[in-house]
Amino acid sequence: MRRRIAQSAVVSFIAIVAASLIGLPTTSRPTIGVAPPRDRPDVILVTVDALRADHLSLYGYGRLTSPVLDGFARRAAVFTSAITQAPYTKAAIASLMSGLYPTSHQAVTTTIPFPETMTGHVTTTLVATDVLAPSITTLAEAFHDQGYQTYGYTANPFLIASFGFGQGFDHYQFFPGGDFAQATQVTNQALSDIRQADARPVFLWLHLMEPHSPYAPPPLTRDMFRPEGKAEPIPEDRPPPSWLLQGSPPDLRAYLSRYDEEIAAADIAVCELIRDLAELRPLRSPIVVITADHGEEFLDHGGWEHGRTLHDELIRVPLVVAAPGVEGRRIDAQVQLMDLYPTLLALIGAPVPAAVAGTPFVDVLRGRGGSGPAFSELPNTAYALRWDGWKYIQFADGHMELYNLIADPQERQNVAKSEPSRSMKMARLLDRHLADAIKRGETIEQRTVPIDNGTLEQLRSLGYIR
Prior knowledge:
The protein is an alpha/beta fold. The chain has a single domain (about 40-370), classed as 3-Layer(aba) Sandwich (Alkaline Phosphatase, subunit A). About 30% of the residues lie in helices and about 20% in strands. Strand 13 (about 375-380) and strand 14 (about 380-385) form a beta hairpin.
């Protein structure tokens, strides 16, 4: 009974906060289009690490993991088919910030083999990593060039400034430490800094680490979702990494519950951020984007965490866009995470750098326009094309997979052999995409920088290095 009362209190608290968020001031909401710089809206971009779309109640999940986001989304565009360009943070965020595919921007991994780097099985000493090239005009630089004050915050050690992710930010802060900084710590620091901002518009990016592993939700949401039903034993040949959950329980339900509780914690932090920003800057109706860099796997295709496959549990991410002149609606048209770069600039009436490969989806936000193809990569390992209800994956060793996402949304049945003509058609489209991405990358000088001992130690403490 005590647990039920506590959980009810938490849900009630979230509901109250959600109500306050939904009631944000909506004065001075101009239509989408070119606006004088002084009248341009603030732009708030929140990326939530390892957040898979189908674990949000906003996307139909059975648990109420995102009540605040659910309420906020009533006046925002909710995309049901938003695709990230890579199933791990570094390459995905580099694509979002550059408007380029991983093959083009080349900020994809460390100097050791990719599978080791991102799966926690590193045995080689890391000495250097590739970085986001200075020649690339980042999204932050594009906003800065338009007179915006730019602020960036992250607790992910793959997104530090020396790796190129601080380009264009007036203020960029990484939160070091043995554990990831909690969302409230990141948002509180951002709010403290924004209080010192002047009347010019602000571009604010926060990268929150809940629900990335280890799954350790804060007290506010801990035990919010207790495992229910029968135990789900974990196969002995697919044990979870030891760092995911303290004690490594042999029941899959425990991992899902803790993961969902971390989602709820991020939901609350995002709510408080947006609410407090509205109070700090009431004269600016902001553009707000909430999304994720990639999803998370729980044995969906035999693995854990992320960075291993190009299946939808890893590359289909949530995307919610609220902007002046945008009506609340669900949008099924497929878009890519890298398309946010030109879209956000278009929404403030700013030019898009010619080198950007992403396609703006402003017309889709207005209820016009259709889907486009989406491409994702495990650089040098596998490449995926998601288009017209199908998913095609081509591997570097020549193996290929084809899935009918309408009939088989869980991607269980590889129909490449029984659908040879469609496989060939998808392969040709994928080849053209890769050729274009390679060509764009030829003008970008790939650079590497040493990884300092502090960052190495944090990567080690978080399970990336053993």
